[in-house]
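@channel sequence for tomorrow's demo:
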Amino acid sequence: MSMTRRGFLATVGAGSAMGVGGALSAAAQDAPALPKPANGPIVIGSRNALAAATRAVGGMRKGEDPLDAVIRGINLVEDDPNDDSVGLGGLPNEDGEVELDASVMDGRTHKAGAVASLRHIRNPASVAALVMRRTDHVLIVGDGALRFARAHGFQEENLLTDKARRVWLEWKEQHSEHDDWLPPEGTEKKKEFGWKTRIDGSDFTYGTIHVSALTPAGDLVGCTSTSGLSFKIPGRVGDSPIIGAGLFVDNQVGAAGSTGRGEANLQNCSSFLVVELMRQGRTPEEACFEVLRRIAGRTEKRLLNPAGEPGYQLKLYAVRRDGLTGGAAMRPVEAEMVVHDGREAKKLKMKTLYGG
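structure tokens (generated this afternoon):
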């Protein structure tokens, strides 16, 4: 029986669709049942999110939109000049300029918004929300992000506090062994492993604030905001404004965020992977540990300490849609997270992959 080329392709296409459909059906049958939503509100966050979590829960109880409640909580930290890793008072790049990054994601719509390398605007989380709500984009960076913020009425200001300026000047005076520039391949390295130390003996700031929330209706939202790695090369963008790296929300599964070495999250799509592992039935803590193990196994040699372990800190936080929360950290340095269970916010110790 003869067959035209068009008829042959149609037959093959139908067979392929049936095969794919059959495979998907089998996979769907094998997948664990998604957890039922909890009563909420439940909020998780980084160790500096105690006030933000309390503000977020309070806002939701008063009827605020959950994402707005989370962002207003994060604004408290962005406005705090004593937090040198977020917003006003954040430590600058190597030129002494404060550059801010932030992202938001709303599980109800699966929409997201972000800004990166934003200068002179202290509340990047609020600008990121406007990117999500008032544009057809997800990410706006640099001068474009500043112009967008100005168009929406945000006021420019100098974000470099006197305290941050003093720390930057001290680093700049002695930074030859403590910056982010690497020599050409094959030449001697100037640093052997990942803990980078400031002249005053404290670690470089990888700090960030992350907050995710579960509403009584079972909806999930999240936000991450940062001034990024202190003394970074100008224009460096970490994981915080990148959806899937520093933040990911799936209303059917859960939400995840991260703080710490952003490059590690960018290379491994960490937050997305945490959520996908929860979809497969892992608890939040199990999912976070599995992602950390994968990251550790892929860490380049120069970032390993003498014991052969990643020398940097990385923390993952997750909440499942049934209200189960959890997290994990690469190392024990400041290995804490905030959990608001609907009654009060508490700072909890996190289990660690190394050194615990």
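heads up for whoever presents: Residues 5 and 278 are 45 Å apart (CA to CA).
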